[in-house]
Amino acid sequence: MDTELTRLTAAEIAAAIRGGEVSAAQVTGAHLARIEAVEPRVRAFLHVAADQARAAAAAVDQRRAAGDQLGPLAGVPLALKDVFTTIDMPTTCGSAILDGWCPPYDATITRRLRDAGVVILGKTNMDEFAMGSSTENSAFGPSHNPWDLGRVPGGSSGGSAAAVAAYEAPLGIGTDTGGSIRQPGAVCGVVGVKPTYGGNSRYGVVAFASSLDTPGPLARTVLDAALLHEVMSGHDPCDATSVDAPVPPVVAAARQADVSGMTIGVVPEFTGDGVQAGVLARFTEAVELLESLGAKVTEVSCPHFSYALPAYYLIAPSEASSNLARFDAMRYGLRVGDDGTRSAEEVMALTRARGFGAEVKRRIMLGTYALSSGYYDAYYGKAQQVRTLVIRDFEAAFERVDVLVSPTTPTTAFPLGERVDDPMAMYLADLFTIPSDLAGNAALSVPCGLAPEDGLPVGLQIMAPVLADDRMYRVGAAVEAALDARRGYPLLNDAKGLA
Amino acid sequence: MPIARDDVAHLARLSRLALAEDELDHLAAQLDVIIAAVARVQEVAADGIPPTSHAVPLVNVFREDTLVPCLDAETVLSQAPAVEQQRFRVPRILAEE
Predict the structure, then answer these.
(1) pLDDT tens profile A220-238
(2) Count of CB atoms within 10 A of residue A319's CB?
(3) Smallest CA–CA separation between A412 and chain B, in Å?
(4) Which helix (H) or strand (E) holds A354?
(5) Model-level pTM?
(6) Which residues of A are marked as active site?
(7) Please, which residues 21-50 of chain B have a Cβ atom closer than 8 Å to chain A?
């Protein structure tokens, strides 16, 4: 019974709790047992909050007993990326500089989850301050891919993706700045969504690059991702960049799961050199599948997408160098070398040198360089112009097609350690996901099969216009339904890393 | 133009990072490669193209001017590295005479 509970989707769990077939306490207990069984191998969590989770589940059971109307995800367990502040759990962002920090307030999204009766199981591992594509930049060691424990789960939201793929939680939340939800989703064989920028509050999300950071859902089905999307989204007066517009009807779109009459654009710039053969094969099949389901498929060139990666690696580090200046060793977090002989500035520099890992230092230095006088116009200024051109490419494309598609990542999950000391190789993992971060539009990754050469999952990326998030759910759900029907079972059944 | 080791040391000072010598060497080599790669943005013909700092344009965002409780001093100071007389204790910020 308990093992079966961890195999259910979030939609099934919520329905079973509402119908009184199972208690929220039983569901949470089953997931905590699963975590205990597999965590030594997966290492998805930095902190498991068993007591708080049991209390949250008990509260849902009490509300049901009292006859309260339960929300669509009440009693469903969730794995929360350690970048969201939580008043009753530590928040480290995978960094030694915040080791042991207990924030004095909840992020808006944390608060919304609690209000919806979602049970937060704990905080998941991530690349330090969300900078990376493998979780190897975490100060607390990497997480492991449930398909093959010797490989990365992607990043930066790799802990949440691994937890969902390993059946430790049916739902996860990540943040996407350059692909940090979609890329781990793709390489772990789960659904990962970057909603439209501003659709989800950044209040209480420790900042990496403020004009790009976007919280979003991870789940094993497109419908589950949509249910979570609707619970976490919506305008927040505490975030000045939050968009005051209705949440797109993503749950209805996921249930519709029908692409007939839609026009789908393939981006030729993202199907050429550098894409793994098996990734391209599965992508091509998915496009043919969409055509067979009644969509019209056409090619749409986006000439500036090739420059999105270099522009991103100027814009994101520039914003990061500014955002991370707040870690000054004065008000919270680590302080090193305060022995009475050193000045505040010396203590600051010693603390930051000790508390930040290699990738964070690289990005701070790169951002400082790009923003320094004499280089600003040639680097940061130029990157901002490229950002405009990427947005114009999207606008022109969406005049002709409803959504754009590409592989989510150029390759499947790579072996742990392979790219750790080769930053440019690591950065390439986000080649196809970055344009939607620069443009702020919505994008979703849905599993579309396994690469024949390594048996690892491949993601199909579906990109939709700003505030038209529902379109990508419609397409994603159609692909998922057709592939599940063809295979006869969900893709994750083939994951053998924990067998 | 390759980035000189002195430039990297200067960037570290600006970034308030007290890096060890070997870290500076390692970073200088890596930053050189990364900067050469990102410099590709300069190939793009972008004359007259306005810069974008924020993808979803919003102007003059206000919220209701309502009173809400704020955190109390005890809660805020509970996470501080050092506290004295209900204040953050910090190392000296002015040079000695």
Answers:
(1) 999 999 999 999 999 999 9
(2) 23
(3) 23
(4) helix A344-355
(5) 0.97
(6) 81, 156, 180
(7) 23, 27, 30-31, 33-35, 37-44, 46, 49-50
